[in-house]
Specification:
Blueprint lengths: L6 E12 L2 E12 L3 E5 L6 H9 L6 E6 L2 E2 L10 E4 L11 H11 L4 H14 L15 H13 L5 E5 L7 H18 L2 E6 L2 H7 L2 E6 L2 E6 L1 H6 L4 H6 L4 E8 L2 E4 L3 E4 L1 E2 L6 E7 L4 E4 L10 E11 L3 E8 L4 E7 H6 L7 E6 L5 E4 L12
Helix pairs in contact: 2-3, 2-4, 3-4
The chain binds adenosine-5'-triphosphate.
The site of adenosine-5'-triphosphate (ATP) has 13 residues, from strand 2 and helix 1.
């Protein structure tokens, strides 16, 4: 998908080594001028290194970075039309909120009236107008985060880079700020590139997500594309909960000993051979009998475990081949067909929601290199 309005950032085959470790391994991507773009991945996958190269704090070993069509690969950080908001907000403690926001403009010699106007606009945008006279120590974590954002935005960068912008906040505030960040980004209409290891955060805020695995892009797409149509095991497992049933792919089926031939949709580039069927817990229904389900889409088993968590329950169903399926049930499903541990039940799925992915099971991702 090409974002509307052209790309503000283009990254081509970008590579960064630390000794024998390939921290960023030939990454290519484009970010639209008004896009909210997330770099998502586990610790050590290279997302901060990639962000720092875009900002200019880290030098690329190979590849190119273009911002607004200009090659900035060798340009100093302060000469790039980007701004970066760091994990630690680094506010000046002795200055008020308004002074913190004004500082960068004053340092650049912007005239007083213009500074006041732009600071006023930014404080309004970040909902800080009433707190303009306070010092950082008199603010909550979320308010401090907004000051840091106002300070980064007041210089009107075309592109703002944010490294784990919400990691210092508690869960409630983080959820609220996810929506706020998105609103502010939309209102000012510039591109945001956000580094996060929090998949829910990436799904909620982003227009598109690049999922990184050991320095490479495992998948790039909209939240719905990456979540609903993972291309590989890494993306499938990294975002949300996923059942992976192991077997051999033959055409549009996964052949599993003891379970039969299960239908699904092959991800691009997947060949016949070792593979798995990936299906989300919320895409499986539990019934007492298979009813009129299509061949291979009703898997009988026994309820092994039930975890209740308010809005629903998570059921583990032991299948005939010994594998376990995780199934998410909502309150209405539970009322319609209550189940207890030990009950026989049938897991029914729609092949449209089952993805056939290639390769064998891998151990959990570890830092790479030699
Ligand atoms: N200056 C450095 N010298 C040597 N190795 C480094 C350096 N900076 C990063 N690395 C290594 O490069 C890899 C990628 O690091 P990076 O900080 O980009 O990962 P990350 O995905 O941002 O992780 P986290 O979420 O933990 O911050 C890691 O294995 C890290 O140890």
């Amino acid at each position: 998908m090409t974002p509307a309005g052209g790309d503000i950032l283009t990254v081509e085959r970008l590579t960064r080594r630390f000794g024998s470790l390939l921290a960023v391994d030939g990454v290519g991507l484009g970010v639209g001028a008004e896009e909210f773009f997330a770099l998502l991945g586990p610790s050590g996958c290279g997302k901060t290194t990639l962000l720092r190269m875009i900002a200019g704090f880290e030098i690329a070993d190979a590849g190119r970075i273009l911002i607004d069509g200009q090659d900035v690969t060798a340009t100093r950080p302060n000469r790039r039309p980007v701004n970066m908001m760091f994990q630690s907000y680094a506010l000046f403690p002795h200055m008020t909120v308004a002074q913190n926001v004004a500082y960068g403009l004053e340092a650049e010699g912007v005239a007083g009236g213009e500074v006041r106007r732009r600071v006023g606009d930014m404080l309004a945008l970040t909902l800080l107008s009433d707190l303009a006279g306070r010092r950082p120590a008199q603010l909550s974590g979320g308010q401090r985060q907004r000051v840091a954002l106002a300070r980064a935005l007041v210089k009107r960068p075309r592109l703002l880079l944010l490294d784990e912008p919400l990691s210092a906040l508690d869960r409630r505030l983080r959820e609220q700020m996810q929506l706020e960040l998105k609103r502010m980004q939309r209102e000012i209409g510039i591109a945001f590139v956000v580094v996060t290891h929090d998949q829910e955060e990436a799904l909620v805020m982003s227009d598109r997500i690049a999922v990184l695995d050991r320095g490479r892009i495992a998948q790039l797409g909209t939240p719905a594309e990456v979540y609903e149509r993972p291309r590989n095991r890494f993306a499938a497992r990294f975002l949300g909960q996923m059942n992976l049933i192991e077997g051999r792919i033959a055409g549009d089926r996964l052949v599993v000993e003891g379970l039969g031939a299960l239908p699904g949709i092959r991800a691009d580039g997947v060949a016949d051979g070792q593979g798995c069927l990936a299906i989300r817990p919320e895409r499986i229904a539990l019934a007492k009998t298979g009813g009129a389900a299509a061949p291979g889409t009703a898997l009988p088993g026994a309820v092994a475990e039930i975890a209740y968590h308010g809005a629903g329950q998570s059921v583990h169903l032991r299948l005939a081949n010994g594998a376990t399926l995780s199934i998410a049930r909502r309150a209405a499903d539970i009322d319609a067909a209550p189940l207890d541990v030990g009950d026989a039940a049938v897991a029914v799925f729609d092949p449209a929601h089952a993805r056939l992915l290639g390769g064998g099971p891998e151990p959990a991702s570890t830092p790479h290199g030699s």
